[in-house]
Amino acid sequence: MIVSVYQPYFAPFPGFFSKALCSDFLVLMDSVQFPRGTTWLTRNRFKNDQGTLWMTIPVWKKGLGLQKINEVRICHERHWAKKHLASLKSAYAKTPFFEDHVTFFEKIFSEGFERLIELNLRIIEYLMEHLQIPAKIKLLSNLDIETGEPRLSVEICKKLGATQFLAQTGARKYLDQEEFEKAGIAIRFLYPRPPVYPQLWGRFIPNLSAFDLLFNCGPKSHGLLSGKERISS
Q1: Sheet strands (E) in the chain
Q2: What is the pLDDT of residue 176?
Q3: What are the helix (H) ranges across the chain?
């Protein structure tokens, strides 16, 4: 049983899903602290004829102090949802598979989600389905675990009965490997290789939102994610 964790990013990049593809459970860390600065929880990169297209979900932060990710509320002022939808249509209308997914964006950008986690989770679930990733999603807030790191990941694994914990290479220095060993849980590290695929608008840009991959490659996206990672202890 392999468990991995990630924060619930907005429209995540392909590496997020490469990690999920190698896992039985993907735990979304929705009840940890929301970062004070810029974060992938509220924004991601797409592509248009100018190059990188940044898309940001505005949220309420001023005067609220420290918030957990699942407490953060979306700000629905200034018609940003209509602008984002128009930007996507302008950038991707000519991609082979955009029409297969445009109704999803029309729906989520009109629903008026109150909390950021609701929007991000809906998007992650949609991408998991269409990238054909069978891992089960769990929310940290539903696991009844009170501790923080460096024990948090160990407790998540114990709660789900994991025999292996899959982490990004950058997390190596933050994990208490001795605690994993005591719990009988092996740590494995993922070295994802960004998939290279046809894109519109000039030179290839890696690690955009996985929607860029899906719009351009459709059903072939799963195969492009598979076999693009290396795992080691």
Answers
A1: 2-6, 25-28, 43-48, 51-56, 136-139, 164-168, 186-192, 229-232
A2: 85
A3: 14-21, 80-92, 102-108, 116-130, 152-160, 177-182, 210-217, 221-225
Name the 3-class secondary structure at 137: strand
Which range of residues forms the domain containing residue 118? 2-232
Residue 3: beta bridge partners?
25, 165
- Judged by DSSP in three states, 135 sits in coil
Contact 117, 70 (CB under 8 A): yes
Categorise residue 170: left if φ over 0, alpha if ψ from -120 to 50, beta otherwise: alpha
Ranges of the chain with pLDDT below 50? 233
Q: What is the Rg, in whole angstroms, of the alpha carbon atoms belonging to the chain?
A: 18
Tokens describing residue 219: 């059903």
Alpha-carbon gap, residue 87 to 52, rounded angstroms:
12
Number of domains in the chain: 1
Are 210 and 17 contacting, i.e. CB atoms less than 8 angstroms apart? Answer: yes
Q: Please write the tens of the pLDDT for every residue from 71-100.
A: 999 999 888 999 999 999 999 999 999 999
